[in-house]
Amino acid sequence: MIPALLVGCQGNASSTAKYSTGGDPTDDPCARVVSAIGYAGLLLEPKGQEDRQNFEDALIGRLAEARGITLEYGDRLPQSLHGAAERVKTATGGLSKGDLPRERQVALLKQYRVAADEIVAGCK
User: What contacts 65, CB < 8 A, 6 or more positions away?
Assistant: First the structure.
């Protein structure tokens, strides 16, 4: 027998769709993607020092979050940024895995930074 508790959870359901990241489909795509890039950036070593980066779980999690947000909103960025969004998705797809060899992590981080910077500049 299935408990009837699930019925009670449906009463507060919103009629508008919500993304798993807490965003709303009507959110500005530039604002969402740039925010995710900035949040991940708080744990990054300064540009040019990627070889010193510690790829701890917190950073990997933030990069995975940036990937998820870019997957959700990247196609709605201005057309000129679609290539950069694809590069962010690819780089963060690799970086969000904790078992990559360090050399690969550093290479992907450098690729991510170039693409992320392009998005931030293009969204201004």
Answer: 21, 36, 39, 40
